[in-house]
Specification:
Helix content: 25-40%
Strand content: 25-35%
Number of domains: 1
CATH class: Alpha Beta
Number of helices: 5
Radius of gyration: 14 Å
Distance between the termini: 22 Å
Strand order of the largest sheet: 5-4-3-8-9
Structural class: alpha/beta
Largest sheet: 5 strands, mixed
Number of strands: 9
Length: 150
């Protein structure tokens, strides 16, 4: 569970996107950002969530949002995910786990009796000044856009 709260400054991001290009949160200063953390490319829940954001991308753009996804997958895996599902937004590749740790979404998880380290599906809505406006921890993968726009 994240240590961040609504009103906090969003932690800086210095990483790469699916193309290996540098990506920072600073690039989006003056814009609202939907930063969604998800466990793994090509998995059922992550695909449903990403496709919901894809299907509602124009609505989010019209409301002034930039959408960024983030997982610990490699840029090459992100490219496959984007191409397979025609995702119109960038995916941050956080292979060194710096971003997920800074946002407090990397930790112990349990699934079918097994414990492992992974990403807790969490979305941060960040305002134009870089402040956290909302934190969604109980993500509805099928209707995530509605949670963001509530």
């Amino acid at each position: 569970m994240t240590h961040l709260k609504i009103g906090d400054n969003a932690p800086a991001i210095n990483s790469v996107d699916q193309n290996g290009d540098a990506i920072t949160l600073e690039q989006f200063k003056g814009k609202k950002v939907v930063l969604y953390f998800y466990p793994k490319d090509m998995t059922p829940g992550c695909t449903v969530q990403s496709c919901n954001l894809r299907d509602n991308y124009k609505v989010l753009l019209d409301k002034g949002y930039v959408v960024l996804g983030c997982s610990v997958d490699s840029p090459a895996r992100h490219v496959k995910f984007i191409e397979k599902y025609d995702l119109p937004f960038s995916l941050i590749s956080d292979e060194d786990k710096k971003v997920v740790e800074d946002y407090g979404v990397w930790g112990l998880k349990k699934f079918m009796g097994k414990e492992y380290m992974g990403i807790s599906r969490t979305t941060f809505v960040i305002d134009e000044k870089g402040l956290i406006e909302d934190i969604i921890t109980k993500v509805d993968t099928k209707d995530h856009t509605a949670q963001i726009l509530k």
